[in-house]
Design goal:
It is a single chain. By secondary structure, this protein is an alpha+beta fold. The protein folds into 2 domains: about 220 residues, P-loop containing nucleotide triphosphate hydrolases (Rossmann fold, 3-Layer(aba) Sandwich); about 120 residues, RNA polymerase II/Efflux pump adaptor protein, barrel-sandwich hybrid domain (OB fold (Dihydrolipoamide Acetyltransferase, E2P)), CATH 2.40.50.100. It is built from 9 helices and 22 strands. A 6-stranded mixed beta sheet has the order 7-8-9-3-10-11, with helices on both faces. Strands 16, 17, 18, 19, 20 and 21 form a 6-stranded antiparallel beta sheet that branches.
């Protein structure tokens, strides 16, 4: 599955046809990232996100495929080409920063240029310039142990940018930070990514992070791309159970029959919100938000065309709302207020009626 724009000039582009094997795990990804574009790769644990980053960084060999950056071939096993990590124009910001504890902040940032032959004075001058860009010039003489988590993350970014990379890789860049620091550093990181001219690949499992930082999302599950597109499109039309849970939607896959979506167990949903499935379309998805689900103690009367009886599976408090998974012919998650929980006397194992208006359900082809 190709996840980037169509073919064209390769100036500044990252193009990766990845076929890699790590033990019993196989990774198959076709990825294209434009100059100046930030692509967030999301997926559950074990999906292959870190393996993909290691392939792009040159730390994991390809079994088959090809990786090109700015028109230059980095990996092509069929032609015997494999570029060493230190010879790639790639900057990497690791999850745990990986700053050298025995070096000052300035020398940490200068390390990459020095390793590539830049004289010490020039490398330190470049380090000072990058520290100024991340607004930490006053910390140049400190050791990493004296830095906060947010400061260490910005130093790690400065170190990656000091290499003047053609490609920037970010591996869970905010995961080691507390909530308050994460908000501040996310805003700073967005500013730096906006100024970066090359392609950027962000590895994350946090949807807020991905949607705040990325131009496009790529969903990776079990070593395969299951969905790709703008955040709004992925959020509105999920194509896997994991993505639906990530964005908080109820998702079903079934067979189109007029306005109905017939589910595998025989139950059906009537969906007017997505319009007709389209000529020749058989398999479709149906999705709706838990807030579109209303709960009732007795069978409701009104305009809702989807009504069924179920059993409350549990109650999940989330901020000022309560999520209520309901078992039944159509398993569903409702989202209600604490006041509604009290008024309906909701409790695990209790009988309940669920209703969803047809206009709240979006239907789209598989």
């Amino acid at each position: 599955m190709t996840t980037g724009p169509g073919a064209g000039g390769d100036r500044g582009w990252l193009r990766a046809d990845v076929d890699a094997q790590v033990g019993d795990f196989a990774l198959r990804v076709d990825l294209a990232v434009a100059p100046g574009e930030v692509v967030a790769v999301l997926g559950p644990n074990g999906a292959g996100k870190t393996t993909l980053l290691r392939v792009l960084a040159g730390l994991q060999p390809l079994r088959r495929g090809r990786v090109t950056l700015d028109g230059a071939v980095l990996d092509d096993p069929a032609r015997g080409i494999r570029t060493a990590p230190e010879d790639r124009a790639v900057g990497v910001v690791f999850q745990d920063h990986l700053l050298f504890p025995h070096l000052t902040v300035r020398d940490n940032v200068a390390f990459g240029p020095r390793a590539r032959g830049v004289p010490r004075g020039a490398a330190r001058a470049r380090a000072d310039a990058e520290l100024a860009r991340v607004r930490l010039p006053e910390l140049a003489g400190r050791r990493p142990a004296a830095l906060s988590g947010g400061q260490a993350q910005r130093v790690a970014l400065a170190r990656a940018l000091a290499l003047a990379p053609a490609l920037l890789l970010l591996d869970e860049p905010l995961s080691a930070l507390d909530v308050e620091a994460r908000t501040v550093v996310r805003r700073e990181l967005r500013r730096h990514l906006d100024a970066f001219a090359g392609p950027c690949v962000l590895i994350t499992h946090e949807p807020v992070e991905a949607m705040a930082l990325a131009d496009r999302l790529v969903i990776l599950e079990a070593g395969r791309v299951t969905q790709a597109g703008a955040a709004e499109e992925v959020s509105r039309r999920p194509r896997s159970r994991w993505v639906a849970e990530l964005v908080g939607l109820n998702l079903y896959r079934g067979r189109a029959a007029g306005e109905q979506v017939v589910l595998p167990g025989g139950a059906a949903l009537t969906a007017a919100g997505g319009g007709p499935a389209g000529a020749g379309v058989d398999e479709v998805y149906a999705a709706f938000h838990p807030r579109a689900v209303t709960l009732h103690r007795t069978r409701p009367e009104g305009s809702a065309r989807n009504v069924w009886r179920g059993t409350v599976a549990r109650l999940e408090a989330q901020g000022d709302r309560v999520r209520v998974p309901v078992d039944g012919p159509v398993p569903v998650v409702a989202e209600v207020t604490p006041a509604a929980v009290a008024a309906l006397d909701l409790a695990r194992g209790g009988d309940i009626w669920a209703a969803v208006k047809a206009t709240e359900i979006e239907r789209y082809p598989v």
